[in-house]
Amino acid sequence: AAAAAAEAAAAARREREPGKKRRERRSVVGTPDPSVPPSGASCSGCGAELHCRDGAAPGFVPAEKYRSLSEGPAGVAGLRGAVCQRCWLLAHYGRALRLRLPPEQHREVVSAALRSPPRHGRGPLLLYLLDVLELPDPVLPQLPALLGPDVPAAGLLVVGNKVDLLPADSRGHLGRLRQRVAAACAEAGLRGAPLVDVRLVSAKTGFGMEGLVSRLQRSWKCAGDVYLLGATNSGKSTLFNALLRSDYCKSRAPDAVDRATVSPWPGTTLNLLKFPIINPTCDRIFRRQERLKEEATKTEDELSSEEKKYLKHLKKQGYLVGRVGRTFQQLKSSSVIDFDPDMLSYSIDEDPRDSPQKHEEREEFTHNEVKDARWCFDTPGIIKENCVEQFILQVLNLLTDKEVKLVLPTNAIVPRTFILKPGMVLFLAALGRVDYLQGEKPAWFTVVASNLLPVHISTLSNADAFYKERAGQELLKVPMGGEERMKEFPPLVPQDITLKGVGPTEAVADIKLSSAGWVAVTAHKEEKLLLRAYTPKGTALVLRDPPLLPYISTIRGARIAGTAAYRTKKPPSLVENLKTTERR
């Protein structure tokens, strides 16, 4: 019913679009041809089988493009390295086509892969990725049931991703985050074997990636295959791409394996993608360690201009940055060396209509290279199972492309702190609301959410009228589209919360407003607060105790006169594996 309602709402929005925009939307979908059989080739971005039969099915390529690729001299092999229309639109325009793909199909692909007979006499290593911003992870408790007794897994390594988005609220904050991830594993019944380790990384900025590769090579070596698991939008495809550019894959893999499509839309990967794992021999381990030691002696001033430019770009995106290098690179046999593994692996950023010349130059693995290879697989994101969580997903799917980009943080989050008295209200866009109903003293409310989502302070007496007037308008930004948009958007529903303060510098709990972000509440010691928090109907409001960043309210500037807000402060970024320059 929820899916039908979502589709009906989307159809209604399309009908309200101007005629020109509707024609553009139809032209984007392209022309299907049901008479052409599927290709048997997979999209190099999401893993779906390429075809031109149905524009709403995964792997669709417009019939004109499909014929130009498959009817040439190479035949169906001409589709090698091509991407489906959905991946192409995601990569070029950030647009997501709606697909008829039931949640159970994602789970079936993952389940079938995990239950395949062990290769090389040993079960696979499961590398489970979770988004630290989403703790408690919605899928982690379902993992034991998903695996079941018949999954021959040899080990489980849990990786907390997106740590680059969170500021350091105190010394040792990463150790505390790691403890929170380990505690979530224990609560999910993953204590002890087969849990191998818990790591923290940023697949996007590279922080922690060299350490993860070393951990995999040191403990797992090349004993069996590795499967990347995780909830939708946890960053698995980004991690897959980062490992593809690291010492974990065979040296020629960036030339012969396409990168996975990366998008803020949940459920980008639709089937299995893979690359061959390099065998970490003693010689390779030694050479890799020598490279890491040499790089650790460099300062930022000693880097090349291109490396400095890239680091500057990453520092704008995250608080924690790492440099992922390559020890083993096979040079081309041409007289002029033109080797850039990053550029060679970016086939997703090219039009699927590759020229014949590009296909001829494309690297291919030989049978001997991969006949005994161990593989690293990127699997489809696990979609939340129960009906309430499925409706949460439908709410996310109701968001437009622009709204998704505003809601999901992609750059370092700058905390925003406000001091509220009883009778005051905090709005996070039109997606969440926190009322301070009762208390003796003012309290601090720190918003940890996308920097693009606006925060507005009101009073209890004006809050309802403010929301009715401003929701759907530019002031609150999300949702956008005016009164008509808000008619189809779920209303905000309340939940009362009682807290007791622990001190003016330490938050007592986080109020997590579904996937929009959270509000850390800090109050004087023993001060009792009565709050009322709102999220859209059908979405989850979580009280996270203890808070993820307990000292987050201390990351602030001076109070802005005449307002409830403090000036924001952005802590500096930290680059891993670089020698710091001493300042006098």
Automatic annotation (TrEMBL):
Residues 1-11 have a biased composition (Low complexity). GO terms for molecular function: GTP binding. Keywords: Coiled coil. Residues 445-545 form the NOA1/YqeH-like C-terminal domain. Residues 226-276 form the G domain. Residues 1-40 are annotated as: Disordered. Residues 282-309 form a coiled coil. This is NOA1 protein. It comes from Caloenas nicobarica (Nicobar pigeon). The gene is Noa1.
